C-alpha cells in the first residue's frame, strides 16, 4: 500500500545517502570521495575538492537493498520501483557547493564540488510523492522475464486509465491502505487509541482525522523542562528545571 511504498523508498534513499556520505568521510575502505569533474568548469569557478560519492552510494544501495526482493510478480516490480524512486530522489538532488579562496574572502578563486541534499529535503520530497502516489496494475501479466534494472518500470500502468503513468520518481502501490483506525494485529496496525493529536490541525495529525471520529480527551499535564540555560567557560551548560503545564489531547 501507499505507506509501504514510502517505507521502501526512504529506506533505499537512506542507504544511498549514508553510504555516499561515508565515502567522502573516509569511513569506508573501498570508496573515497569523488574527485572527478562533472563537465567543464565555469567562467568564474573551477572544480575542486571532494564531491559526495553518490555513484558508489547509489550502486551499493541498488545491490544491497534490491537483493532483498525475490519473485516475478507485481509486488516484486513495485518494491523495486519504490526502492529506485528513493535512490533517484537522492541522486537527482545533488547540488553545487562552492568556496571562495581569494584575499579576505573575495571570490577571485572559487572551487566547487557536488554535495548530497540534506536527508530532511529528501524526506520532504518523498512525503510529497507519498501524498500523490500512483495506484498501479501490471499491463502484461506473466511477462516478467526481462525486468532487471530500469526496464521494470515500464510494466506499471496506472489503475485509473485517465492518470498518467508513474515516473521514475513517483511512488507506486497496488492495494488500498488498510484502516489504520482500529487495531489489526495481523497487519501490525496498532490503531489510534491513545495517540496524541492536535486539536487545531485539520491534517492527519488533527484530532478529527486521527481519532477517526471517536473523540478525544483533553488533559493538562505538568512536565519538567530544562530552562534558563547558560554557558560556562569551558565547556559546560548549566540549566534550571522549570515546571511547565502542557495541554495534551489523546484519542479515545
Ligand atoms: C497544531 O496544529 C497547528 C495548525 O496546523 C499548528 O500551528 C501547531 O503548531 C500544531 N501544534 C503542535 C503542538 O504540533
Automatic annotation (TrEMBL):
At the top level of its lineage, which domain of life is listed? Eukaryota
Q: Which UniProt keywords apply?
A: Developmental protein, Disulfide bond, Extracellular matrix, Lipoprotein, Secreted, Wnt signaling pathway
Under Gene3D superfamilies, the record lists: 3.30.2460.20
Where is this protein primarily located?
A: secreted
Q: Where in the cell is it found?
A: Secreted, Extracellular space, Extracellular matrix
According to its UniProt entry, what is the function of this protein? Ligand for members of the frizzled family of seven transmembrane receptors.
> Belongs to which family?
Belongs to the Wnt family.
Tell me which PANTHER family the record gives: PROTO-ONCOGENE WNT-1 (PTHR12027:SF91), WNT RELATED (PTHR12027)
Q: What is this protein called?
A: Protein Wnt
What is the source species?
Limulus polyphemus
Amino acid at each position: 500500500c501507499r505507506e509501504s511504498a514510502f517505507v521502501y523508498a526512504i529506506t533505499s534513499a537512506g542507504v544511498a545517502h549514508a553510504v555516499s556520505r561515508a565515502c567522502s568521510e573516509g569511513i569506508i575502505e573501498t570508496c573515497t570521495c569523488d574527485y572527478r569533474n562533472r563537465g567543464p568548469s565555469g567562467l568564474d569557478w573551477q572544480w575542486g575538492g571532494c564531491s559526495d560519492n553518490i555513484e558508489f552510494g547509489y550502486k551499493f544501495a541498488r545491490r544491497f537493498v534490491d537483493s532483498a526482493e525475490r519473485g516475478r510478480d507485481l509486488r516484486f516490480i513495485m518494491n523495486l520501483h519504490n526502492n529506485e524512486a528513493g535512490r533517484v530522489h537522492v541522486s537527482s538532488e545533488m547540488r553545487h557547493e562552492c568556496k571562495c579562496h581569494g584575499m579576505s574572502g573575495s571570490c577571485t578563486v572559487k572551487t566547487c564540488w557536488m554535495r548530497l541534499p540534506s536527508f530532511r529535503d529528501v524526506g520532504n520530497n518523498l512525503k510529497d510523492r507519498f501524498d500523490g502516489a500512483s495506484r498501479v496494475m501490471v499491463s502484461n501479466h506473466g511477462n516478467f522475464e526481462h525486468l532487471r534494472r530500469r526496464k521494470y518500470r515500464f510494466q506499471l500502468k496506472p489503475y485509473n486509465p485517465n492518470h498518467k503513468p508513474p515516473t521514475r520518481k513517483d511512488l507506486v502501490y497496488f492495494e488500498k491502505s488498510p484502516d489504520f483506525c482500529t487495531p489489526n494485529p495481523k497487519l501490525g496496525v496498532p490503531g489510534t487509541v491513545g495517540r496524541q493529536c492536535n486539536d487545531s490541525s485539520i491534517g492527519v495529525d488533527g484530532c478529527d482525522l486521527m481519532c477517526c471520529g471517536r473523540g478525544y480527551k483533553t488533559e493538562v499535564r505538568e512536565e519538567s523542562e530544562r530552562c534558563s540555560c547558560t554557558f560556562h567557560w569551558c565547556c559546560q551548560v548549566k540549566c534550571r528545571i522549570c515546571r511547565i503545564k502542557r495541554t495534551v489531547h489523546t484519542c479515545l
